[in-house]
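Researcher: Sequence recovery benchmark, item below. Answer with residues only.
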């Protein structure tokens, strides 16, 4: 395992999300989830329109991404016995998870949220994540009653062999959020070949 911010997480973290169960058995296998059109570089600090001060730690309870119609509860995720990030139960397609041994969303550092792109029944919570646009907002409800509001900086897709662990999971000097699901190419024999990653930073709270 390697250090990610203030806590440890495995190098291989999201493989279990990536079987492509629905595409494997569905007649709609040609209807793969949307992917980012191109890699968008994260902006220089001077280009950022707005930042908000860090919030005190508080576990998240729900994630909402209005532009892609996501409104899902969050559960805590730990590490499996092999050291990879655990996953939400696959049978609940409208459920996401956050790495509960790491940074809480809104706190200074890098918070991690992950969820399935599909399950045996069809599209799941982050099926449309690759269609998200720079500048979109992500709201995270917190147990303290507040809502941390994040603005999307970039949406990127990486093949598994080229996944940039330090860029995605590395420590940040401000409150940042990563939202991760499966993506990239798809093969019936191996499932999804990579991951879609959304980079966002805290721009407000209420």
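Model:
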């Amino acid at each position: 395992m390697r250090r990610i911010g203030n806590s440890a997480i495995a190098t291989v973290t999201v493989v279990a999300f990536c079987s492509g169960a629905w595409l494997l058995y569905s007649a709609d296998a040609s209807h793969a989830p949307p992917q980012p059109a191109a890699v968008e570089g994260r902006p220089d600090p001077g280009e950022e329109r707005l930042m908000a001060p860090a919030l005190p730690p508080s576990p998240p309870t729900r994630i909402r991404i209005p532009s892609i119609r996501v409104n899902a509860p969050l559960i805590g995720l730990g590490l499996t016995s092999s050291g990879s990030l655990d996953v939400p139960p696959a049978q609940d397609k409208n459920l996401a998870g956050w790495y509960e041994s790491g940074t809480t969303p809104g706190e200074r550092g890098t918070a991690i949220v992950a969820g399935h792109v599909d399950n045996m029944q069809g599209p799941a919570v982050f099926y449309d994540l690759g269609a998200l646009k720079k500048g979109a907002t992500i709201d995270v409800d917190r147990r303290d009653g507040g809502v941390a509001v994040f603005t999307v900086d970039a949406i990127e897709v990486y093949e598994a062999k080229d996944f940039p662990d330090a860029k995605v999971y590395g420590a940040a000097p401000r409150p940042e959020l990563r939202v991760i699901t499966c993506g990239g190419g798809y093969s019936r024999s191996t499932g999804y070949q990579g991951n879609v990653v959304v980079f966002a930073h805290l721009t407000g709270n209420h």
